[in-house]
Amino acid sequence: MVMVKFFVSLSIILFFTRAAWSQEVKSQLEQMNTNAVNSEKNKENYEKNQKTAEQNLKTIDDNLKTLSEQRNQIRENSKKADQNVLTMGKQELQIQELVKKEKVTIDTEKKQIEQLQVKMDQVNKNIKKRDENLLAYKTKLETISKEKEEWLNQKKAAQSLEKSIDEKEKLAQTDRGEWKKKAQAYSAEVAKWKNEANENKALHKKYEKLNK
């Protein structure tokens, strides 16, 4: 009886021990899976960071190369600037000599201008007089143009009146022709009836005498 109780107790202990161990294994498996997922995400993030870092390194290297090229270009330009400054200095001396010559020439030409100014003043007076003449001519032309327009308007009115007279004359000639034809017809009828009347009168007188 005691052995039976012992085995029963042992079975109960083993059952609970196995259940606890199974739960622990399951929990550990879940944790391992979570760790694997997190590790994969961390790997992907660091790969992205690595790619970004490599791109930044390439960009910086390109910038450093460009800066080096720019430095070399600036140094070359500085050399050229020194050469150009030397050349400009020589040209400056040449130009200063030319400036002196130009000043002398300017003084000479100023005297010529003073002489020409006297002539220009006289010419300006003449131009002023001619402007006055032009104004007078303009006024006269405006008057002539106005009178010319009036004469043209009179001519148009006369032409219009003449055209009206021509039309009336043409109509009168047409009426005259028609009335002339009618007059000739009436004249023929008058002669006809006059003869007939004379014949009738003569016949009437003849019979009148016979009846007496």
What is the helix/strand order? Answer: H
Distance between the termini: 214 Å
Question: Structural class, from helix and strand content?
Answer: mainly alpha
User: Portion of residues in helices?
Assistant: over 70%
For the CA atoms, what is the radius of gyration?
Answer: 69 Å
Strand content: under 5%
Mean pLDDT: 81
For this entry, give a set of tags.
single chain; 212 residues; 1 helix; elongated; disordered N terminus; mainly alpha
Explain the overall architecture.
- This protein is mainly alpha-helical and 212 residues long.
- The chain is 99% helix and 0% strand.
- The protein has one helix and no strands.
- It has one helix spanning 2-211.
- The chain is elongated.
- The termini are far apart.
- The relative contact order is 0.02.
- Residues 1-10 and 12-17 have low confidence and may be disordered.
